[in-house]
Amino acid sequence: MKKKLIYVIVAAALVGLAGYKIASNKEKQQQEVAEVAKQVDKINVNVITVSKEEINTNYVSNGTFLPKQEINQSADISGRVVNVLVKEGSNVNAGQTLATIKRDAIEVDLTQAQNNLQNAIDDNLRYENAYKTGGVTKQQLDNSRLQLKNAQAALKAQKVRVSDTQIKAGISGTINKKMVEPGMVVSPGTALFEIVNINSLKLSVLIDESQVGKIALGQAVTINVNVLPDETFSGKITFIAPKSDSSLNFPVEIEVQNKGNLRAGMYTTATFKTNNGTETQKMLTVPAEAFVNGVSSGQLFIVNNGTAKLIKIQTGKVYGNKVQILSGLNEGEQVITSGQINLDNGSKINIIK
């Protein structure tokens, strides 16, 4: 009986110990769950501490070189090409003959026009002399003079046709492409040669409305070419559009003298000095990606006692990825730069960096 009582007491002790252990584990699990829930309730964000920094205030715009002059040279008359006198890469001068068209039939017409003119001259001379003696009327003389003028005009027209059998360069430059071969039949308006003049190049870029008032015709511009990183070129502004495009940007053209290693189509960066020649200025800035719904909204989230606070600020100029802050934000405040899409005003946050 005594032994049985001992077993009962031991069993009860074991049951009590197991119950205590279960209760202890349950309390620990509840604490862990509460801690996890507390962390889940927070939104992970990245932040930066706002401070003043030296910003390059020069305005930069990208574009592609275009030839200063470029034409597709065509024939002025129809006919069969008998000679092509240039090849791709040939340097040509304005007025130089590039190809010739068969002219046999045109020369026959020219000879006929010359004969007709000589007949008209002889006839008119007889009418002039006869009119002096009253042998013909004034009307007959006038008709004779008209026939002479028509014959002269017809001869000029045939000479023009003969000249047009020579396809001549309209500008000085380089043959970039040749689209004709001997034996081809050509017609007016069909492009036969592409001629480009790259002695100087034209760079067309877009300037923001906030900067266009700070540049002027003739102003020097620094040009950098992506494929020539070790060289810097200089250009000058030759055109500023009087009207902006739909994005409030103004087309601007810059002329660059070619030193021999530039080509049309090269991608370039133009740097405009727009701050009285000063390249840098110390200012308060934040990254453009920090703004809610874009820079134009002027809205940012800042850190406020472990929560996100939505504020409205006044922005200035945009320098690359940096946006100037004029008011509404103080140096030393922390601005949220990522995770804003998940935030509301007052959301709890967990700062990653």
UniProtKB/TrEMBL annotation:
Instruction: Enumerate the Pfam families for this protein.
Output: Beta-barrel_RND_2, BSH_RND, YknX_C
GO MF assignments? efflux transmembrane transporter activity
Multidrug resistance protein MdtA-like barrel-sandwich hybrid domain location, by residue? 75-196
Q: Does the keyword Cell membrane apply?
A: no
Q: Where does the YknX-like C-terminal permuted SH3-like domain start and stop, copy by copy?
A: 284-350
Q: Spell out the InterPro entries in the cross-references.
A: Beta-barrel_RND_2, MdtA-like_BSH, RND_pump_MFP, YknX-like_C
Q: Where is the CusB-like beta-barrel domain?
A: 205-274
Q: Which residues form a coiled coil?
A: 103-161
Indicate whether DNA repair appears among the record's keywords.
no
Q: Which GO terms describe its cellular component?
A: efflux pump complex
Entry keywords, A to Z:
Coiled coil
Family per record: Belongs to the membrane fusion protein (MFP) (TC 8.A.1) family.
Protein name stated in the entry: RND family efflux transporter, MFP subunit
Q: Where does this protein come from, organism-wise?
A: Flavobacterium haoranii
| Highest classification ranks of the organism | Bacteria, Pseudomonadati, Bacteroidota, Flavobacteriia, Flavobacteriales
